[in-house]
Amino acid sequence: MERMNSCLKSCGVILFAAGLTACSTFPLPPVSEQGKGLRQPEAEYRVVQPGDTLYSIAWESGRDYQDVARWNHISPPYLIQPGQRLRLFPPAGAGRTSRPESKPPVRSDSQKKPVPDKPETAAPARRVPPAAAGRLSWVWPAQGELLERYSANGPNKGIDVAGKKGQPIFAAEVGQVVYQGGGLRGYGQLIIIKHNADFLSAYAHCDKIYVKEGNVIKRGQKIADMGNSGTDRAKLHFEVRYRGAPVDPQDYLPRK
């Protein structure tokens, strides 16, 4: 019996040592990486919901609206219907974009303009495209302290301007309203303005909104009151997109 117990103890020591060797050969992943699931692939299609526009869907998915229109055979004025299924990736054999790659133009010193003190007279609603030719000349969309800057590698793809609820928000450049609503998660009440074939701008967390989809807007025109919809304080989150890609708004706005 003693001989058997001794044998069992010896086997236990051997197994324990083998276990240590195995652990040293195949270490467990760091605690911070345990339990993390694989990143889910991006959806290839998007079903149109009430209130969506082609521009808002392209904005939300980080696409150029012209590419989304081309992939889905949609012609200007890019009307879509609830329940319609839109492709967000190019079909097989089609290129990612039909437009040649180019870097967005940036501000020149001659473009500097002051932030307007009061809104200009509202333009009547017209369903016509905004003027597309020539260099744009931007103005600040709101007055206030700059809370957060654009981050190319971080989550903030625009700038945040502090203010008070009810403070005016102005159109940064002439254009046409192509989306107005609260359907984009994280933006609250949002306005998207198309300035030309390349540039769009967005004004998030609005309170009262004074424009509708299709309105042609002047530079410096009051389009909304600042609010805290979709966020924890009164502020304006302002973004600029060039051919669907976020760019730093301060590359275009006058220097303060």
From TrEMBL:
Keywords: Signal. GO terms for molecular function: metalloendopeptidase activity. SMART domains: LysM. Residues 44-88 form the LysM domain. The keyword Signal applies. Residues 1-22 form the signal peptide. Residues 89-129 are annotated as: Disordered. Residues 98-120 have a biased composition (Basic and acidic residues). One of its GO terms (cellular component) is cell outer membrane. CDD domains: LysM (cd00118), M23_peptidase (cd12797). Pfam families: LysM, Peptidase_M23. Transmembrane segments: none annotated. Belongs to the E.coli NlpD/Haemophilus LppB family. This is LysM domain-containing protein. It comes from Candidatus Muproteobacteria bacterium RIFCSPLOWO2_01_FULL_60_18.
